[in-house]
Amino acid sequence: MINDAPAALQLTALTKHFGRPAVDQLNLTVRRGELYALLGPNGAGKTTTLRMVAGLLAPDSGKVEVFGIDLAANPAGAKQAMAYLPDDPMLYAKLKPTEYLEFIAGLWGIAAADAEPRARKLLDWLDLTKHAHELTEGFSRGMKQKLALAGALIHEPQLLILDEPLTGLDAAAARQVKDLLVDHVNGGGTVILTTHILEVAERLAQRIGIIEHGRLIAEGTLDELRSQAGAATLEDVFLQLTGQP
Ligand SMILES: Nc1ncnc2c1ncn2[C@@H]1O[C@H](COP(=O)(O)OP(=O)(O)OP(=O)(O)O)[C@@H](O)[C@H]1O
Predict the structure, then answer these.
(1) What distance in Å separates the CA atoms of residue 123 and residue 137, rounded to the nearest whole number?
(2) So what's the pLDDT on residue 1?
């Protein structure tokens, strides 16, 4: 049962101000084996939250724990267990996908003999094998997004943290990425993602959190959210809770 599973990610009173609060005393738990969708209007604090979880932005206060490891006390240990895919991933234009993945694997200290089959499997999975020998500078946005995802997965992290992973992907690419995420969770892994595509949250997430002004204003399964709000669809729940017309 997911509800009884230990926490993969635990945020306690996480806070970040940029002049005004972007993330405000945020408490959030994602259980092991869960796909958790974090929704919120523009500027709600989703990306700021994920960047703090990934260790790219220091919180003003509060705590991030990844599988019980305190990110501030043991950043290397916490980061080993997770992967972060930003919404505008950076690739190296002059590398080919295989070279890129081997380079990232090298940063994680993965031996070439282990990295090579993993890279091959990921490229295959994301339908990039036919582009394996092309420079990434010629890649479309969707191809770059998929390669960045492969790079995030190369060290076989248990926790995937994904900021808008499906934006800009065509239907086939979106399906590949969704299948990969579902597969990760079915294999015992954990995913937290942000999305503005409510259908993605409805179809993929075991639990959904809605954040506004840096605070969690609702959380639950799709059915729980619908019945709490007395609304028929997630879109109705979302617009009702975030006070949008
Ligand atoms: N580096 C920064 N400097 C100043 N303000 C920032 C910075 N990063 C984020 N903010 C502010 O923090 C707030 C939260 O932004 P954040 O990007 O986390 O929102 P979001 O929920 O991811 O929004 P979106 O859905 O539009 O991507 C916003 O008011 C934003 O302007």
Answers:
(1) 17
(2) 45
CB distance 77 to 55 below 8 Å? no
pTM of the full structure: 0.92
Distance from the CA of 6 to the center of ligand 1, in angstroms?
30
* pLDDT above 60 (res 144): yes
Range 72-102 burial, b when 16+ CB lie within 10 A, else e: eeeeeebbbbbbbbbeebebeeebbbbbbbb
Rounded Cα distance, 4 and 131, in Å:
43
Instruction: Examine the domain organization and report whether 106 and 76 are in the same domain.
Output: no
User: How many angstroms separate the alpha carbon of residue 18 from the centre of ligand 1?
Assistant: 9
The range of the structural domain enclosing residue 140 comes to 86-156
Pocket of ligand 1 contains residue 42 by CB under 6 Å: yes
The secondary structure of residue 39, as a DSSP letter, is: E
